[in-house]
Design a protein that fits this description.
This protein is α/β, with parallel strands linked by helices. 58% of the residues lie in helices and 7% in strands.
């Protein structure tokens, strides 16, 4: 079943979505710890490099007999770097290093190595009592030393004092880098570049070491490399997943519309690139020969010396480029080249430039262009697309402009802009300057095309649309109308309604859209208009007569009808409203799980119009008020709830030929909710007694009535009575559905099949609600023995498609698991987070993430927990979200205060 939250044995391998957490959180923590250790070691090496010349050292070696080795006149330091998350270093952590050092010492004693040796253990942790006792014992080697936070070296005072964690180590290195005399080189950038070089040298490159006398030249090289890039913003904000500048493939092709942040990404990634980087921007109209010669001279000037640098051969540009590459190769120099605006070079000539640099790591930055597939085929590479900014980053950008936004509005900004940095940044400026920091109002105006100030997004993409052929423009309009990905056959059905019947003509037009990056083709055969292009695309319905426009929309409705995919289901509901199919729309609201999923705002407006229209069928009006009452109850709007309940009572009293037990139960159940919310116990009991006497029993109406009454008793504060009634209802529902307790633990897919094939599938969700009510009662009584009920509720909610309640029950389970097995709790919360995103239940995401932050702290990752809470604090939060984050932050700090330092 699509959208189900995985749990236990029912958990299948999920798709690897960009920016989302991995399935195996425990493995993630192990990998993070490993990389943290290596990064700490690299940063400590950077600290040594920054002080190397002042210490009078000759060189720093990496990954030889020890993690780091410093060669000084008359002595040699062997540095073993150990990081411990526990904050305590014990003897077993360093025993092997001390044993191995005996062999190193023997080499020096035999004069096979020069200088007097010392082993220095560098650690972010405090030594444990046993280890401290050993270091002061008479048999402790005099040339083995420990350095840890707060304890600098007495013998080698120039060595950096270890910091307690990565962030502190980075801060120390950055402060030290600020003393290097290169005003144009930011200290943080220098640290990142040096760390990348240390990592690269650790792989066996660069002779696995650094000579002190060469460091000045290396710093100068960094300055030259980074000066070539266009000036980046003061603060670089990473995209959802920022790849490194170079990867396993020799040629990397990064494609995106102007504003996608390609150049800014490359400039930032160059800071961490272990290879020397040369940036070259292709000017409009430049010939390939001139580009090749210019690139050859740039490479020679930056990376060669002496006559090899100044005496370049005469000849065609490509010949000069080949000659320079040969000189680089002979000198053992491998470089990275960033070629910006590569789409300006004809494909054959671009291939020739790539071929002239066979050992160079090439990064091609380009706009989408028609010849892109040709280049892909010849170079046998697939283009990469930068994924845009994450929701957290969008919130941060708007916050910098004085606009606070909630998660759903931030996601809406991404939908309107594609998350492209330039477009998001300008949207934030316009929201502040033109809409008084009301981001939702800006989104409404931009989505409807009623905003007054033109945007860069429109200017850039309107030029692309202006160059399209007529058929391509019409197909773009249809894809914009669809909003969701369509298969080509589905798009052809829509096109035929507009008279575009030729498949071959439509196919060429589609290739035109994809080639220009306006449409995206997915591996499963679906097509979609780029999110950023949708607000600018032609409004196809405006040019059609009323009959054709209705026919196109009804065809689209049939295409997306009945699909479990949340986006398609949402589009279908809006199409039902816009084509006047209100009866079908109201029928959807009668499903027990309707309010468990995302629903479009337009649906509510359509139902409101129906409810208020005295000319509408009374049965439709009753059902419309019923749905609106449910919305009001879920949102806590008691005034609106009362209004809709009173309207239902009036309509029901007036009578209708189709009214029967179902309608009587609907009116009574909404009365229950109204009286429960108002804590009117007497009225609640009276209403139940009156309705119960008029309801046939046993029947689904009787079950539904008692089910609603139990929920109202909970609302009114009669928790124990509500729990007792729920327990009795569980037996009733289990018997009716033919379920036994072992059946409830079957895989979700099996339960789902039983649910959809049953005469009353909604009763599966009501049974889950009864288990959920028992969990609430247990929590109210301060009991934590509700795990079985939470699990059964979770399974049944999943089986019935009640995703909102499934997530709520999943969080109940995580509340129990986090104290006994935080790794399992993290894994399950990650699954809940994915389910919320897939089902567009954006209002629950902040709560899941704050709970996940607490579990991170319980798993030992307090810095990660704090970072998560800091990110959530930037959102425009509801009062309950604010209270939750305050409470969780307090718990995290209590955990931190009890953790060993």
């Amino acid at each position: 079943m699509s959208g189900a939250v995985p749990q236990g044995n029912d958990h299948d391998a999920a798709q690897d979505f960009i920016g989302e957490p991995p399935l195996d959180t425990a493995q993630q923590l192990r990998i993070r710890a490993t990389h943290s250790g290596f990064t700490y070691q690299n940063l400590y090496a950077v600290g040594c490099l920054l002080r190397l010349r002042d210490a009078g050292a000759e060189s720093l070696l990496v990954e030889r007999d020890e993690d780091l080795e410093v060669v000084l006149p008359g002595r040699r330091l062997y540095l073993q770097v150990k990081t411990r998350k526990s904050g305590v270093l014990v003897w077993s952590d360093i025993r092997d290093a001390v044993d191995q050092y005996r062999g190193v010492r023997a080499e020096h004693d035999a004069d096979r190595r020069s200088g007097s040796p010392s082993l220095i253990v560098i650690t972010n942790a405090k030594p444990g009592p046993d280890l401290l006792d050993r270091t002061v014992a008479v048999d402790w080697p005099g040339d083995v030393h420990l350095l840890y936070p707060g304890r600098p070296s007495r013998v080698e005072a120039w060595l950096p004092t270890p910091a307690s964690d990565l962030e502190a180590m980075m801060q120390w290195c950055t402060a030290e880098a600020g003393k290097v005399r290169f005003a144009s080189l930011k200290p943080r950038t220098l640290v990142e570049k040096l760390a990348a070089r240390v990592q690269y040298a650790s792989t066996g490159a660069l002779g696995q070491g650094f000579v002190a006398s060469d460091l000045g030249q290396l710093f100068e090289q960094f300055v030259q490399e980074l000066q070539a890039f266009p000036e980046a913003p003061g603060t670089y904000r990473a995209q959802k997943t920022d790849p490194e500048l170079i990867g396993e493939q020799r040629v990397r092709l990064v494609v995106g519309h102007p504003g996608a942040g390609k150049t800014t990404w490359a400039a930032d990634a160059a800071k961490r690139c272990p290879l020397p980087v040369t940036y070259c921007d292709v000017a409009e109209g430049v010939s390939a020969d001139a580009l090749a010669e210019s690139l050859a001279r740039e490479l020679a000037a930056r990376h060669l010396s002496g006559s090899a640098r100044t005496e370049l051969p005469y000849g065609a540009g490509l010949d000069v480029l080949r000659a320079v590459h040969l000189r680089l190769e002979r000198a053992g120099i491998i470089v990275a080249v960033v070629l910006d605006n590569a789409h300006r070079v004809p494909v054959d000539e671009l291939r020739a430039i790539v071929a002239a640099l066979p050992t160079t790591q090439l990064v091609l930055l380009a706009h989408p262009w028609p010849d892109l597939p040709v280049l892909e085929a010849h170079l046998e590479i697939a283009p990469q697309v930068l994924p845009g900014w994450s929701v957290d980053t969008v919130v941060e950008v708007f916050a910098d402009e004085g606009c606070r936004i909630d998660y759903a509005t931030a996601q809406r900004v991404i939908t309107l802009t594609g998350g492209l940095p330039l477009y998001v940044g300008q949207a934030a400026v316009l929201a502040r300057s033109q809409y008084g920091a009301d981001v939702a109002e800006f989104c409404d105006a931009f989505g409807e095309g009623t905003h007054a100030v033109p945007t860069a997004q429109e200017r850039i993409l309107e030029r692309a649309f202006a160059g399209l052929g007529e058929t391509a423009g019409e197909l773009a309009g249809l894809l914009a109308l669809a909003e969701v990905p369509l298969k080509q056959d589905e798009l052809q059905l829509l096109a035929a309604d507009m008279g575009l019947v030729s498949r071959s003509v439509n196919g060429r037009a589609l290739r035109e859209l994809v080639g220009l990056g306006l449409a995206q083709a997915f591996g499963d055969g679906h097509l979609k208009l780029h999110d950023a292009a949708r607000p600018v695309a032609p409004q196809v319905l405006e040019g059609l007569d009323e009959e054709t426009a209705d026919r196109v929309q009804r065809t689209l409705g049939r295409i997306v009808e009945g699909n479990w995919d949340p986006a398609r289901r949402s589009r279908w509901m809006r199409l039902l409203g816009s084509t006047g199919q209100i009866g079908a729309l109201i029928a959807l609201t009668e499903e027990e799980g309707f309010f468990e999923r995302d629903y479009p705002r337009e649906v509510r407006a359509d139902l409101t119009d129906t409810a208020r229209d005295p000319a509408s069928d009374p049965a439709l009006r009753l059902d419309a008020h019923n749905a609106l009452a449910a919305w009001a109850f879920n949102e806590g709007d008691m005034e609106a709830l009362a209004s809709h309940v009173h309207a239902m009572e009036t309509i029901h009293r007036a009578g209708h030929p189709d009214f029967g037990p179902r309608e009587a139960m609907l009116v009574a159940s909404r009365q229950f909710r109204l009286y429960g919310s108002a804590r009117a116990l007497t009225q609640l009991r009276r209403a139940f007694a009156e309705a119960h006497t008029q309801t046939p029993a046993p029947s689904r109406f009787d079950r539904g009535l008692r089910y609603e009454y139990a929920g109202a008793l909970w609302e009114v504060g009669e928790h124990l009575e509500a729990g007792e009634l729920a327990e009795g209802l569980i037996d009733t529902y289990m018997d009716h559905l033919g379920l036994t307790p072992p059946d409830v633990l079957l895989p979700v897919e099996v339960l789902h099949e039983r649910c959809v094939s049953h005469d009353t599938p909604d009763d599966f969700k009501r049974l889950a609600d009864c288990f959920g009510l028992l969990v609430k009662v247990a929590r109210k009584l301060g009991r934590m023995d509700f795990e079985p009920w939470a699990l059964w509720a979770f399974k049944l909610y999943n089986a019935s498609g009640a995703m909102r309640s499934a997530i709520d029950s999943g969080q109940d389970l995580a509340d129990v698991e986090c104290w006994t097995n935080p790794a399992v709790a993290l894994k399950n919360l990650d699954s809940l987070l994915r389910a919320a995103q897939e089902n567009n239940l954006l209002d629950v995401i902040v709560g899941i993430r704050s709970q996940r932050a607490l579990v991170l702290a319980l798993a030992g990752d307090v810095p990660g927990a704090r970072a998560e809470m800091e990110a959530l604090a930037r959102y425009d939060l509801t009062p309950s979200e604010s209270d939750d984050i305050r409470h969780q932050s307090q718990l995290i700090e209590e955990i931190a205060s009890k953790s060993p330092r």
